[in-house]
Every structure is written in structure tokens, then in C-alpha cells.
Amino acid sequence: MTTFLITGGAGFIGSHLTEALAAGGGKVIAYDNLSTGKLKNLKAISKKKNFSFIKADILNEKMLGQAIKRVDTVFHLAAAVGVKYVIDNPFRTVEVNVLGTENVLRLCHRYKKKVILASSSEVYGKNESFPLKEEDDRVLGATNIIRWSYAATKAMDEFMALAYYREKKLPILIIRFFNICGPRQSGRYGMVVPRFIEQALKGKAITIYSDGKQTRSFTYIGDTIKCILALSTIRRAYGKVFNLGSREVVSIKELALKVKEIAGSNSPLVYIPYEKVYGRDFEDMRHRRPDIAKLEKYLGFSPRTRLREIIKSILCENKKL
Ligand SMILES: NC(=O)c1ccc[n+]([C@@H]2O[C@H](COP(=O)([O-])OP(=O)(O)OC[C@H]3O[C@@H](n4cnc5c(N)ncnc54)[C@H](O)[C@@H]3O)[C@@H](O)[C@H]2O)c1
Hints:
There is one protein chain. Helix content is 41%, strand content 17%. The chain is α/β, with parallel strands linked by helices. It has a single domain, classed as Rossmann fold (3-Layer(aba) Sandwich), CATH 3.40.50.720. Strands 3-2-1-4-5-6-11 form a 7-stranded parallel beta sheet, sandwiched between helices. It has a two-stranded parallel ribbon with strand order 7-10. Helix 1 (12-23) links the parallel strand 1 (3-7) and strand 2 (27-32). The longest helix has 22 residues, at 90-111. The two termini are 35 Å apart. Bound molecules: nicotinamide-adenine-dinucleotide.
């Protein structure tokens, strides 16, 4: 039986991936310190025989090594995530995302395990090319702007992973996620879709940061999991970097209006300057959209779920709670 370790397995993406791997018949271990993740996310599979959970930190080398030793493949998703979380926890962000990832890579090399590394569209920084290709330049923000530290840590993770691949022949695969959304995502750490939905359902003002004309693309979690699983089985994908995102682009104002309409909410839209939310030293990019030609070339498919359906899936979950 194939065995998998998912760091960050109790998180939003990690818990969906854990479920999918367990459903596929593999033996799955979720490894998480429950900092932003929740055990509740794993409730549906908690009693399955091929699933187990380890509550531990990726900075704990001993526990991590023991877990990695037991599996064939590691999906490394544990990280400090979310603009708000990063701004509130600047040191922890660098520590977990750089030192934690180095632990994962070093131990995977020691025990000869494959690694799938979760990276982010943030590595492009302030590059607003439309759409963004994997080989495009990164445009770096100043170091006093804390939000760019996340981008730098994820880029450092990629450099480390590619170095392990080139020098030490460690099979690594890097996937850059572009705004993944769906059920179980928390709005607490700065994610816009769950935040808007919560505000709309509570009849509170939907708070749009800046002028709402900035554009983004949103990717459905179900599509994301299908792509991760398929890529991880393609041998020639190892040693490479892939964008994983959707081609559908909306402005944040359009997103707010869609959420309001689909939720049948009367919430007013309110505009708040970034500095009131994140302080004076904050920057954001106006536009971000992935080029997913490489993903399509390798997989023969790509994320297709429309934003409307994504919003409905999250509303459906909220109604069940
Ligand atoms: N959701 C997105 O749109 C998105 C976009 C780009 C990149 N990513 C990347 O995908 C991965 C998963 O993100 P997510 O959206 O599921 O966020 P999440 O916060 O739900 O998941 C991260 C998980 O890692 C765990 N974790 C954090 N620090 C840890 C540590 N030191 N030791 C052990 N566990 C730890 C958290 O408890 C959480 O369960 C992350 O690496 C993130 O950088 C996500």
C-alpha cells in the first residue's frame, strides 16, 4: 500500500488532499501543529483505518523524521499562511516557512522520499504581467513591507527544493497556488472569499480593501486536489515548477457583488483603505492571473469551476453548520 505524509494536513488544502488520498486507498498520515488548521477539518476520515494524525511542529526534527521515515511520498503544505497572519507573526513566518521547509527537504533526502512542495503566486511579488508564466521574473518588494516576507520565504523554499533536486537528485515537484477557495477555508487570516461570505450571511457590511478594482482569479479546491494528485504521478513533472490557478478573472468589487447576489444578502459594500487594515507599510498588486498552459500540457486538463459555483459550494457548507 502506498503511504503518504501531508504536512499541514489539518489545514484547508491539506485536509481535502488527505481525504482524497485516503479515498484512493493509500495509507495517509496528516501532520499538523493545529496553528491555523483544525481537527474538525479531518472529522470525515478520522475513523478510517488507513488514516492517522500526528500533532507536531515541522520545526520538531525528531517527530518529523520519524513520520517521514514511515511513508513513500511527502506533500509539504505546512506554512504560515494569510496576509493578516503574516503581518501579525513576522518572525514565526520566516522561521516556519524557511527552517521548517529545510527540515522537510533534508529529511526527505535522508530517507529518500518524494516531495511535493506547496508554493504560491506570491513569489511573483509585484510583477503584474498578465498572465504570469512560471519563468517570469519576480519583482521584489522592500524588506520593511512585511507582507513581502511571505513571498521571499516561498521563493527561498523553491530555491532550496530545486537545489536538492539538481545537486542531490531528490525528486521534488513545486506547485504555485493562485487563490484556492472552497469549503473549510477560514476567513480569519485575510482570505477574501470566506470573509465576504461570512459578512454577507451575517448581514454585516462587506468590507472591500482599497478601491475594489484590483483583479484576481479564484480556483476551486476540488479542481486543485485533482491537479495535485495527477501531477504527483507524472515522473517528468519532477524538478519543475507549475502554476495552479483559474483563467477566470474578477475584480474584488465584482466578487463582493456576486457573493451578495448569490447569498441573497442586503449587506452594503464598504470601502476601506489598506492602511486602516494593515497599517501604513502595506502594498498590494493590482492584477494577478496565472498562465496555466504548462499545467494543461502535462495534465490535459486544468481548473474549470466557475466562481459562481465556488461561492455556492461555500454557502452550502455554511448553511449546514
Ligand atoms: N489557499 C491558498 O489560496 C494558497 C495560495 C498559495 C499558497 N498556498 C500554500 O498552500 C499551503 C496550504 O495552505 P492553506 O490555504 O491550506 O492554509 P492553512 O492555514 O489552512 O494550512 C496550513 C496548515 O499548516 C499548519 N501549520 C502551520 N505551521 C505549522 C508548523 N510549524 N508545523 C506543523 N503544521 C503547521 C497549520 O496548522 C495549517 O493546518 C501553504 O503552504 C500555503 O502557503 C495556499
